[in-house]
Amino acid sequence: MTAVNPMDSASVLAAFGALGVLAVLFAESGLLVVGFFLPGDTLLFPAGVLCAGSAQQPPRLTLWQVLVCAAVGAVAGGQTGYLIGRHGGRALLARTSSRRVTEAAQRAERLLARYGYGKALVIGRFVPLLRTVLHPVAGVLGVPARTFTLWQTVGGVLWSQTLVLAGYTLGASVPHIDDYLLPLVALVVVVSLLPLLPELRRSRRERRERDESAS
């Protein structure tokens, strides 16, 4: 039996299909350090492509199953992350030695403060790394449970269904598109990182200003 690499979307989809989508999105949406190493966008888009059949090849995944599993995994993972944050999340974040986790937690806190709970929880779903830590941080900060549940559900469903359906639409309209999955996945990664650029520029500017004031 071939070993499954949970960080490789093709490996996960080949081994587990729609259930693999559910499991990975659950972990990626709220299990802090573990979620940082799992595919999210780069799993949903190829899953959608594999749901589209052609005259030469039938669909390798069933669209409704992938859509349901993606929504359940994203929403359940977000809710679990929130509960982790409410019950010991602050101590967990304080103990982590991962700089990526710490920086992402700081970005998540700034996002919640800047946009408000609803908008931040929806926007954050579309930003890699940030969405993994956003839900525990919301729990740590005491975001009301009803407000959190509503908006993380909206964000989780919108994010997961949009990417699956985008992959499906492209797979159904472009022949042999699955032959180009690797370049497409790379493109999805680049596009998903674009929302981080303003934040990175702002952080670099603030760091430069602190250095100048210190000198």
Automatic annotation (TrEMBL):
Cite the VTT domain residue spans from the record. 38-168
Which InterPro entries does this one have? DedA-like, VTT_dom
Q: Give the way it sits in the membrane.
A: Multi-pass membrane protein
List UniProt keywords, sorted A-Z: Cell membrane, Membrane, Transmembrane, Transmembrane helix
Pfam families recorded for this chain?
Answer: VTT_dom (PF09335)
| Ranges in coiled-coil conformation | none
Where do transmembrane segments lie in this chain? Answer: 12-38, 63-85, 156-174, 180-200
Q: Does the keyword Cell membrane apply?
A: yes
The protein's predominant localisation is membrane
As for subcellular location, the record says: Cell membrane
| Superkingdom of source | Bacteria
Record family assignment: Belongs to the DedA family.
Name assigned to this protein: DedA family protein
This chain's source organism reads: Streptomyces lavenduligriseus
